[in-house]
């Protein structure tokens, strides 16, 4: 069986120490696992423009393939076009194109630009220079009108020129494979990689999951809750559940896995090693 595509996601650290650790410790350790690329998130209000650029430039300078996430947020076309040119000049040839969410505290006044319009804009301005990945939602985006409309809009992103998709994280493997079937039936041929969130802090994960529409199955919640403050048991059970999820995905032909690393080597590395890749 061919090795599935593997990639690792970061967010831009807020401190100089965090940046140094990410670049000098975390990245070499994860890069040793042979990923296709790293990606770095972007605050849709432009809040992380410089930090995202700084991290991706440093990773690229180390000779590693990296994809900045990008969205319009409240920026005008010139600002986004300039950022695209900067990325090109730094030798970057991948992007993750998103509508984005407003960072909390920035209000809802801004009209966010849908990802299909961003993809079209990138293609208009930079042709085929970038490999563009977009977001996909096996459990359906929380603002979607319906299951069918969400797939319709993913198709629009692909028709605008996206090359692949990365999913929101999920723990229901059936939701992912059903979604792949529905996408295929809708004429989407591009690979849809599974986004995987290792479980480190269960309470934070549960809170975040409520907002982004990713379901944590009841049996996982109950088991996690039963551990209370016993972090070691949470860690062990998290490793077991996520390793099993990834193994099932790989055994069932999933084209690749994108790990939301939360800027940590562990538990991503242990899960990766458990898979015997
Ligand atoms: P869209 O594809 O525009 O979809 C948003 C909603 O609008 C969906 O409900 C969709 O059904 C609907 N829709 C889509 N197109 C249209 C249209 N043309 N007309 C009407 N309705 C439409 N957020 C960040 O802020 N920064 C990041 O770096 C970041 N990285 C992410 C990486 C991945 C892999 C994933 C899965 C998500 C990421 N997010 C990030 C979160 C993402 O920005 C949010 O989920 C956001 O709410 C939707 O972004 P999108 O690109 O999927 O939007």
TrEMBL record:
Record keywords, A-Z: Amino-acid biosynthesis, FAD, Flavoprotein, Methionine biosynthesis, NAD, Oxidoreductase
Report the cofactors.
FAD
Cross-referenced InterPro entries? FAD-linked_oxidoreductase-like, Mehydrof_redctse-like, MTHF_reductase_bac
Q: Identify the pathway.
A: Amino-acid biosynthesis; L-methionine biosynthesis via de novo pathway; One-carbon metabolism; tetrahydrofolate interconversion
Enzymatic reactions: (6S)-5-methyl-5,6,7,8-tetrahydrofolate + NAD(+) = (6R)-5,10-methylene-5,6,7,8-tetrahydrofolate + NADH + H(+)
* Enzyme Commission number, as recorded: 1.5.1.54
The EC category is oxidoreductase
Kindly list the residue ranges recorded as spanning the membrane: none
Q: GO MF annotations for this entry?
A: FAD binding; methylenetetrahydrofolate reductase (NADH) activity
What GO terms in the biological process aspect are recorded for it?
Answer: methionine biosynthetic process; tetrahydrofolate interconversion
Q: Which GO terms describe its cellular component?
A: cytosol
One Pfam family recorded for the sequence: MTHFR
Family classification = Belongs to the methylenetetrahydrofolate reductase family.
Report the NCBIfam families cross-referenced here.
fadh2 (TIGR00676)
Please give the name of this protein: Methylenetetrahydrofolate reductase
Q: What is the lineage of its organism?
A: Bacteria, Pseudomonadati, Pseudomonadota, Gammaproteobacteria, Cellvibrionales
Q: Which gene encodes it?
A: metF
């Amino acid at each position: 069986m061919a090795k599935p595509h593997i990639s690792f996601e970061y967010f831009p650290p807020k401190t100089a120490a965090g940046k140094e650790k990410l670049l000098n410790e975390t990245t070499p350790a994860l890069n040793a696992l042979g990923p296709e690329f790293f990606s770095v998130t972007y605050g849709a209000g432009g809040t992380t423009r410089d930090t995202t650029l700084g991290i991706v430039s440093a990773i690229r300078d180390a000779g590693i393939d990296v994809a900045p996430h990008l969205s319009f947020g409240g920026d005008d076309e010139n600002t986004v076009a300039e950022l695209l040119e900067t990325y090109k000049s730094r030798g970057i040839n991948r992007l993750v194109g998103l509508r984005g969410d407003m960072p909390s505290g920035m209000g809802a006044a801004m009209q966010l630009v849908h990802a299909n319009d961003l993809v079209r804009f990138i293609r208009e301005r930079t042709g085929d220079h970038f490999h563009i990945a977009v977001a996909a939602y096996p459990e359906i985006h929380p603002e979607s009108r319906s299951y069918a409309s969400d797939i319709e809009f993913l198709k629009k992103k692909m028709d605008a020129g996206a090359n692949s998709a990365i999913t929101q994280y999920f723990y229901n493997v059936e939701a992912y494979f059903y979604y792949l079937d529905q996408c295929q039936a809708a004429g989407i041929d591009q690979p849809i990689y599974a986004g995987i969130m290792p479980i480190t802090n269960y309470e934070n994960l549960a809170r975040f999951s409520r907002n982004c529409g990713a379901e944590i199955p009841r049996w996982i919640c109950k088991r996690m809750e039963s551990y209370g403050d016993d972090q070691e048991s949470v860690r062990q059970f998290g490793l077991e559940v996520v390793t099993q999820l990834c193994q099932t995905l790989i055994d069932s032909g999933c084209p690749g896995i994108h790990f939301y690393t939360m800027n940590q080597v562990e538990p991503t590395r242990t899960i990766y090693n458990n898979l015997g890749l």
